[in-house]
Every structure is written in C-alpha cells, then in structure tokens.
Amino acid sequence: MKIGILLTDHVMDELIAEHGDMDYFYKYIFNKVDPTIELKIFDVVEGNYPSSINICEGYLITGSRFSVYDKIDWIDRLKEFVMELNQLKKPLIGVCFGHQIIAEVLGGETKVAESGWTVGNQTYNLIKTMPWLNEDITSFTLLHSHKDQVKRLPDNATLIASTENVPIAMYTVEGHIFSHQGHPEFRSEYVHDVATIRKEVLGDEVYYAALKNLKSKVPDNEKIAKCWVEFFRQKG
Questions:
Q1: pLDDT tens digits for range 38-95
Q2: Is 14 a catalytic residue?
Q3: CA gap 59, 224 in Å, rounded
Q4: Which of 99, 185, 227, 230 is catalytic?
C-alpha cells in the first residue's frame, strides 16, 4: 500500500539536527506500526503533487506553522486538491493544519481559538466509534501545539471525539475522511523544544503549564497511528 504524505511544513532549522525533518516523523511512526506501507512524500509548499491521484491508495495532510486562512498560493492550491480528493472519495487523513484545512474547504470553519494556544498532551473522549478505531479505545491522549481550531464541522461530517480545550478534536466525513487535531507523529521532546523556542509568543503561563504536562503524561502515538493504518486498509 502506498500512502501520499502531503507535507505542509518543515521542522525549524535549529531543531532539525536533533529531531530530523517533518517527513522523518511520518516515516518513523508508520514504520513502527506497519513497515509494509510505502510512503510517498509530496512537498505541497513547493508545488509538488502526484502526477496522478491514483499513484497512492490514500493521502495524509500534515501539520503546519501556517494558518488555513492565510492568503498564500500554495494553500489555495492545496484547498483545490482537498476538494478533488473529496469528490473522488479518496481516503484522506488530516492532522492539525490538515484537520483544519479539510474543515475549511468542505463547509466548516477554522479560526483562532478564544482560549489561545493549546500545547501538550490532550485527552480525547470518544463520542462515536468508527470501524477503524480499535474496540477497546474509549479515550486516548495526543500531543497538541496550535492556536487555531476547527470551530464548525464541515458538511456531512460526524464528530468522533472532543477534548476539554478542543471541542472538535476528531471527525469523519462520510467515512472516507478521518481528521484530528493532535499529532501521533510528534514526540514529547520535540513539542518541548518547539514550545521553548516559542516561549515569548506562548507566555509564561502556557509555557510552564505545557512543560509540566509533557513530563506527566505520555501520548498514545502508536495506538492512533495503528488506526491510521486500519483506516487506509479498509478504505483504500
């Protein structure tokens, strides 16, 4: 199975030596849960797209430091591709920025959250189960680092899970889209280092609360990455 990773950002220059670049995060977590899956990386910021949409059985849109409402050419092009994927009911996963841009394109809304930044582990409470979610999953934890949130579900979407700070944390659209705000591909150490660079932007209260959170909780990265694989295998 080939999965296309639609790369919408890179790791900050000062963190690449320690953590690797964004594509590495996805290669690592997919290899952990299913090494038979082949990833094709498409840097959509640079206008790199598959020559044919059927090169891959499904696609995943990554997180980004950009906002979906930014007036930038590559974001407009990506919105067109999301619309195309949706029309063809191609299996699609959205992560953070990906989660937000899918909502924005398909009739929902993404805005700056009134609560400001959310950084650290967030507990998801399952509202509705789906075929690709393991039966024993009722709640789980994922790492977050964002100030934007999906404020209105896209058309024909069903809410799957919420967190205390993020009411629309996970949703599906007619079963061919699986979308969530958190990052199964992130490690706690990376979120810590990004937060440290952004300390002035975050403010002391958010920053120190994040450090405490990152030390006290462990994300369920592999559990949700396995759900990614199950989703693609069922829908692809």
A1: 999 999 999 999 999 999 999 999 999 999 999 999 999 999 999 999 999 999 999 9
A2: no
A3: 16
A4: 185
Distances (CA, A) of 68 to 77, 103, 129, 201, 219: 12, 10, 28, 20, 26
Helix spans in the chain (H): 13-19, 22-33, 73-87, 97-105, 188-197, 199-202, 204-216, 221-235
Q: Coil, strand or helix: which one is 53?
A: helix
**Cα separation of the two ends of the chain:** 8
3-state class of 162 per DSSP?
Answer: strand
- How many angstroms separate the CA atoms of 133 and 129, rounded? 7
Is 96 labeled as catalytic in the residue annotation? yes
Cα 58 to Cα 91: distance, rounded to the nearest angstrom: 5
Q: How far apart are CA 46 and CA 8, in angstroms?
A: 9
Active site residue 183: yes
Query: Measured between alpha carbons, how far is 151 from 157 in angstroms, rounded to an integer?
Result: 13
Q: Which of 99, 144, 180, 183 is catalytic?
A: 183
Strand 58-61 to strand 2-7: parallel, antiparallel, or no bridges (unpaired)? parallel
Select which of 96, 144, 146, 227 is catalytic: 96
pTM score: 0.96
Q: Taking Cα atoms as reference points, which of 18, 1, 13, 32 lies closest to residue 185?
A: 32
